[in-house]
Amino acid sequence: MKQEFKKEWFLDRYCGRQFAAFVENGKLTEFFSEQEPRTNCVGNIYKGKVVNIVPGMHAAFINCGMKRNCYLALEDDFDNCSKYDGTMAEMNTKTSSIQGGDEIIVQVVQAARGNKGAKVTTHLSFVGKQLIYLPNTSFIGISRKITNETTREQLLAVAETMRDSMDEGFIVRTQAPFSTEEQLNLEADYLKKLSKETFKLAENAAVGSLLYEDEDLPHRVLRDVYGEDLTALHVGDRELYERLLALIKLRKDIPEKKLLFYTGNRAMLTEYGIMPLVYATATPKVPLENGGSLVIEHTEAMTVVDVNTGSFIGENNHEETVFAMNLEAAREIARQVRLRNIGGIVVVDFIDMTDEAHREAVTEELKKHLALDTTKTNVLPMSELCISQFTRKRVGNEMHSYLVKPCSCCGGVGHVPEDIFVITRIRAAILDCFAEGYTSAVIDLNGSVMEKILSEGLFSVEAKSRWQNNRIYFIPHKTYKEECFTVRGEKEKDFPLPDNAQLLQ
């Protein structure tokens, strides 16, 4: 009997953040964390003003009301066309003709990073479940995951009829074959309406105004998942569950029975073993199933991956052993790049192989598994030194950027966990404490972490609901490092506490 391949999403919100984890057959494949309310600007549309043009860089810098001016390429090609099959007509957006002082409408495609401002484009897109509407780009495209030729021709023909002019376009997404033509037209009309409202709003808006904001993390996940492939969608927050249930009832392409509300007493992501896997991604070393390992290091310009054999000795000759090791490493590298959301240039130092056929096979294995990712990648041939290079489009922030922060003790040479992920561990430990029958929890922790919890009210919602019959005491310590804490439970009503203990109200 064929074993079911499980695809599960886990969504939760607490401590002022939203969390989303994608697990395939027990392996964590994707993880995202986003502040609430949303601060990620990717997908947002702004009214900007051209501050200056730098011909030598073929770029313009746009004031969009952010801390740093945004970057716009003068040759602003619609780069998404390379991700889809379709036809590209002559571009109707001429950014090369813009001048300093011009007011233009732009959309963020890459968030600000380091000292660099956000990257923007004039090729606006409005994303739906089945379609992407391009109001000023003449492109009709279709997902490469739709492989049936007859279906592709029919959907492209439908997309062509949706155009009001040759200056606009559509991209047919993977979910489209499971919708009727009427449903496709309804979504197209909705996306066009969003576009018209955005352009109308821009007419009288001030420079730097936000004209359109992309959906928050849980809604983007629900928008992009495929009902027929999804095994379950677990939700750990009641309010979020009700919102997603209402959307599913409207859409009807995901069975309601697949949306599951988590009712356990422990933290959902901890109960399902997800958070330990998340914390593991903050470390450079990644163990492989065959005994080898990867070491992933981030630099300013690129990410470097080193493949090590470790305890793997194989059963055949040295070349065959190394070949098997590199094949396993290629598969895991593709998963780690997707999981950690690594973007930009990635350089991989595979173990030396003398056989050219083996080098080609490892490159093909890497390409095959990177292709499972929806984010665009480009893999170059492996060199004779067994060095592989590939690029992955930057989409949002890399995972380590919000998991860890520079260590204050060593001047930023090392990293320690971000406060919010220390606090999520404290929350999980408190839930474990109450699940074991204790009525009070006593937390010894770093003083600044305690201050963050209390001043920002990160536990206030649960203190007034699921913890209203429990007591939580914080004991700050000047000698505790930020990532250090202990949690103990008490069943008695009265027990000794130090004078500096603070009760969570």
What's a quick, concise take on this entry?
The protein has 505 residues and is of the alpha+beta class. The chain has helices spanning 149-161, 181-204, 217-224, 238-251, 268-271, 274-280, 318-339, 356-370, 399-403, 419-435, 447-455, 460-463, and strands at residues 7-14, 17-24, 27-35, 45-54, 59-63, 70-73, 85-88, 103-110, 119-121, 126-127, 131-134, 139-142, 169-172, 210-212, 232-235, 259-261, 285-287, 293-298, 302-308, 344-349, 377-379, 387-392, 404-406, 415-417, 440-446, 471-477, 485-490, 502-503.
Overview of this protein structure:
By secondary structure, the protein is α+β, with helices and mostly antiparallel strands. It has four domains: 76 residues, Nucleotidyltransferase, domain 5 (2-Layer Sandwich); 171 residues, Nucleic acid-binding proteins (OB fold (Dihydrolipoamide Acetyltransferase, E2P), Beta Barrel), CATH 2.40.50; 116 residues, no CATH class; 86 residues, 3-Layer(aba) Sandwich (Hypothetical Protein Ychn, Chain: A), CATH 3.40.1260. It contains twelve helices and 28 strands. β19, α7 and β20 form a beta-alpha-beta unit. 31% of the residues are buried.
